[in-house]
Amino acid sequence: xxxxxxxxxxxxxxxxxxxxxxxxxxxxxxxxxxxxxxxxxxxxxxxxxxxxxxxxxxxxxxxxxxxxxxxxxxxxxxxxxxxxxxxxxxxxxxxxxxxxxxxxxxxxxxxxxxxxxxxxxxxxxxxxxxxxxxxxxxxxxxxxxxxxxxxxxxxxxxxxxxxxxxxxxxxxxxxxxxxxxxxxxxxxxxxxxxxxxxxxxxxxxxxxxxxxxxxxxxxxxxxxxxxxxxxxxxxxxxxxxxxxxxxxxxxxxxxxxxxxxxxxxxxxxxxxxxxxxxxxxxxxxxxxxxxxxxxxxxxxxxxxxxxxxxxxxxxxxxxxxxxxxxxxxxxxxxxxxxxxxxxxxxxxxxxxxxxxxxxxxxxxxxxxxxxxxxxxxxxxxxxxxxxxxxxxxxxxxxxxxxxxxxxxxxxxxxxxxxxxxxxxxxxxxxxxxxxxxxxxxxxxxxxxxxxxxxxxxxxxxxxxxxxxxxxxxxxxxxxxxxxxxxxxxxxxxxxxxxxxxxxxxxxxxxxxxxxxxxxxxxxxxxxxxxxxxxxxxxxxxxxxxxxxxxxxxxxxxxxxxxxxxxxxxxxxxxxxxxxxxxxxxxxxxxxxxxxxxxxxxxxxxxxxxxxxxxxxxxxxxxxxxxxxxxxxxxxxxxxxxxxxxxxxxxxxxxxxxxxxxxxxxxxxxxxxxxxxxxxxxxxxxxxxxxxxxxxxxxxxxxxxxxxxxxxxxxxxxxxxxxxxxxxxxxxxxxxxxxxxxxxxxxxxxxxxxxxxxxxxxxxxxxxxxxxxxxxxxxxxxxxxxxxxxxxxxxxxxxxxxxxxxxxxxxxxxxxxxxxxxxxxxxxxxxxxxxxxxxxxxxxxxxxxxxxxxxxxxxxxx
Length: 861
Prior knowledge:
Layout: E1 11-15, E2 24-28, E3 39-44, E4 50-54, E5 73-77, E6 86-90, E7 98-102, E8 108-112, E9 124-125, E10 131-132, E11 134-137, E12 146-150, E13 157-162, E14 168-172, E15 191-195, E16 204-208, E17 221-225, E18 231-235, E19 250-252, E20 260-262, E21 266-270, E22 279-283, E23 291-295, E24 301-305, E25 325-330, E26 339-344, E27 351-355, E28 361-365, E29 385-389, E30 398-402, E31 415-419, E32 425-429, E33 442-446, E34 455-459, E35 472-474, E36 485-487, E37 499-506, E38 513-514, E39 523-526, E40 531-539, E41 545-558, E42 563-574, E43 579-585, E44 595-602, E45 617-624, E46 627-630, E47 636-639, E48 642-649, E49 652-666, E50 692-698, E51 705-717, E52 720-734, E53 741-749, E54 756-761, E55 770-776, E56 782-789, E57 795-802, E58 809-813, E59 819-824, E60 831-835, E61 841-846, E62 852-856
Parallel strand pairs: 38-41
Antiparallel strand pairs: 1-2, 2-3, 3-4, 5-6, 6-7, 7-8, 9-10, 11-12, 12-13, 13-14, 15-16, 16-17, 17-18, 19-20, 21-22, 22-23, 23-24, 25-26, 26-27, 27-28, 29-30, 30-31, 31-32, 33-34, 34-35, 36-37, 37-40, 39-41, 40-41, 41-42, 42-43, 43-44, 44-45, 45-48, 46-47, 48-49, 49-50, 50-51, 51-52, 52-53, ...
């Protein structure tokens, strides 16, 4: 039985220790307890089981991992930037100082002692002997986790920037923190938080202390990180308005009596107004300690306080007893703004504030938010805890309470609340939420199978070791809403057109996704927590299905604002034709998502060995070059100047069948020279609107070439902007020793709708000019088309009448005004029969996919 010693000050930690996109877990027990039960790493298999590395294979015997009198602290982060979670032990003594860089297999490469944390640096230890004040984050924006201590003294104020090799570059003393500032991490002291308060992608540090005027300006500061391990500080009333305060709870212990607790504040950091900057709020037992500060990005905050922030009848404060509160921040209504959830023993402590984005909140209060039959015990009190996460995949944060039966509240503290998005929750409690008997002492949530939804994990303390009911993982059976079936022309379960069914798999499945490598910060190769289409099934019209399989490679994420960059490669495999199409896309800005090349392979046996000869035979390849231009208004325009398409004989890539090269010019580019195919930094604003002005298709055989030259016009009036409408187009066909064939066309448009109203072939040739005019109904369907040859009168060549919804043609007239009537199939949109001007009827029938299978003519044939 693997278990964690809370009572022995062990650490049970989570992280993705092997970079596979699934949450893993580890327990690091004290150095005097060396068997595998106390020190282990569990790598998730994604099915509710783990692969374990235990004992000294997880953490060497001579390294400490406890707290209590040892005073150690263990931090997690990606300290070398490889996408895997690492471990950092920090403490007063050399054995407590170590950095473990994950190898991805449950073991770590360790840098030990003062080589990890210099001997001249110290840590802050509170009255309970616990190491406090250690903060981790990316303080210089290089993609590697750094570490700092803001203790107020020369020895306890330092910043360590990771070198990526298990070592750190340290700045200490006044180089890290000005001498006049402090961080009182003890009774009634300040609270420290981290976040990106100015939106530069680097981690900042904030300290919120007792009120100004009490000699505590030095504990109220915001440190905005720079790129070199130093900070720009704003402090005192310049950071937090005078009269506002926040402080931790305090404990007074008199020998022979029970401890006396003084109320503290719940300090939260989140983006409450959706501007991308971290904001700050404090919840206490007074107007001075209840406020929200929206970051201005310059080290200051716009604060809303007192009853303008929190109604007088509501409260929330930190106290490690059953009368305290638990405060959570998350997006409970899915609007992109962080909200505040408070749960406590009394009705006044139970409320949800939905952020309005301006520093104020809409409140749902009392038992309307959390019913009276549900207990909410403060975090850390009696081993119960509240957790938040999107447990049902609806895009809204939910809340669950994890308590064990040894409490005074046996079933009342075991529940889950699914957010309704309006400030209320649907609650499930007791055994309906979690089976009776599955208790534990340490609870956590995380995505242990990579499906994007959180699971719940429980491990016991020492006294429960051997009780299997105390060690469990609750897999989340919910699924995010996904499209599963598309039915065309649906009328009923038995009357419909083509059915398409969609199957999904998570990207943690190695059969469908291969993680990439080589990304450089701020871009990382990732395993996103998402399900993707694995197979598409379509009706084949013969009672069976037509299947296409999909696989994916190399997803990347940009951590400085651009977010998910998509996949570098998609592959679709048609099981019927045995043809595989592989698209390779760009990740780099401004070409993100553009197709670099498309490969087509013939793969007769997709289950064979990919490296075997003849497994895949290349049939065709399309290669695209990309450039960008800084256009007049400062935006970047990405364009494709050249594309080469090559086809080969099956099984012989030395035998080229065709090779076609296409060159493209845009706007004011010089069409007398070929456009460059290497990426320029700036084309000096030659491209203004991105209109294709010339395209040359070289077929590479017999001098066969097609050149298209276009010009454009803008139709603009005060109420309509119709930009970039094709005005004239000339197409020239050339071949060796052949006279060029040239055809020109001009175009005119409706000034209101922008639809094509007139097309003229050979507009500058009175002998061959041919004009076609178009007329439309309110749905944009062509109802009349007239033709005007050179020297002749206009003549209607086509007239159509559509049904009342503008979907299907019901009547049509030819150039002689002869009428044909149609009856249409409402499932497929195809005509079921037509009656011509002579009253003769032809009918058709179709298979479920809309393919014609039978025609009956007027003579019954």
